[in-house]
């Protein structure tokens, strides 16, 4: 295998380096996004039950200890619970934008490698064919098949490597995007439910206890 890689020349090593970067970024982002996925319904139910008892600080603490963007936007909403609906919604939107950007960090690396890898493969092919033509020119008319092997190997190996790296980069990118989209839906649902709960626009059974928050809790939240 190492001999075949050497046949690809310098371009082959560049493509393989891109493949290594793809693998590292994909694994790092995959575990990060996987950890961000929580059971949104159970989490919101627990937070709302705590808020009904007036334990704002406990709700915030649970949000801080829970990984993922859903907990982050719920925390942002609870921190602004005694403000207007517009301000709470704005806090949720700001938190959501921050979390989406955090989850999509380094996605551009995968997309870039997916686009550049086949181009690098084509470049390796062209260089390999140029090398083959030069050998034919130098040794004509007595050209041996073995003399052409190096250039042909470079052309074939770089093309294959470029396509393989591009395919895996593209697959990894789309897999991560699908996971982020799933979490974004959870964020949207969670944002709507916590906003309705805090502003009293949900069912009366769910929203009435929020009026019982102690003045001490509200004073602490203002600071």
Largest sheet properties: none
Helix and strand element order = HHHHHHHHHH
Helix content: over 70%
Query: Which class of secondary structure composition applies to the elements?
Result: mainly alpha
Strand fraction band?
A: under 5%
Intertermini distance: 64 Å
Structure commentary:
- The protein is 84% helix and 0% strand.
- With 223 residues, the protein is mainly α.
- The chain has one domain.
- Helix 5 packs parallel to helix 8.
Task: Describe the structure using short key phrases.
rod-shaped, mainly alpha, 223 residues, disordered C terminus, 10 helices
Outline:
The chain has one domain (2-222). It has ten helices and no strands.
What order do the helices and strands come in, and which of them pair?
Layout: H1 2-7, H2 9-36, H3 40-52, H4 56-65, H5 69-79, H6 85-103, H7 107-139, H8 145-199, H9 204-207, H10 215-222
Helix pairs in contact: 2-7, 2-8, 3-4, 3-8, 4-5, 5-6, 5-8, 6-8, 7-8
């Amino acid at each position: 295998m190492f001999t075949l890689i050497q046949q690809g020349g310098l371009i082959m090593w560049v493509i393989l380096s891109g493949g290594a970067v793809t693998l590292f970024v994909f694994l790092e982002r995959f575990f990060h996004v996987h950890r961000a996925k929580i059971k949104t319904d159970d989490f919101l139910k627990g937070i709302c039950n705590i808020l009904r008892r007036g334990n704002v600080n406990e709700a915030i603490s649970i949000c801080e200890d829970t990984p993922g963007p859903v907990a982050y936007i719920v925390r942002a909403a609870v921190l602004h619970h005694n403000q207007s609906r517009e301000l709470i919604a704005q806090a949720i939107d700001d938190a959501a934008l921050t979390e989406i950007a955090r989850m999509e960090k380094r996605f551009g690396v995968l997309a870039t490698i997916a686009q550049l890898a086949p181009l690098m493969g084509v470049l390796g092919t062209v260089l390999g064919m140029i090398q083959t033509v030069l050998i034919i020119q130098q040794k004509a008319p007595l050209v041996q098949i073995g003399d052409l092997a190096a250039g042909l190997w470079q052309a074939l190996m770089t093309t294959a490597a470029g396509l393989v790296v591009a395919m895996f980069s593209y697959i990894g990118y789309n897999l991560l995007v699908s996971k982020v989209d799933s979490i974004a839906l959870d964020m949207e649902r969670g944002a709507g439910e916590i906003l309705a709960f805090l502003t009293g626009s949900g069912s009366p059974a769910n929203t009435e206890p929020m009026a019982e928050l102690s003045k001490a809790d509200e004073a602490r939240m203002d600071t």
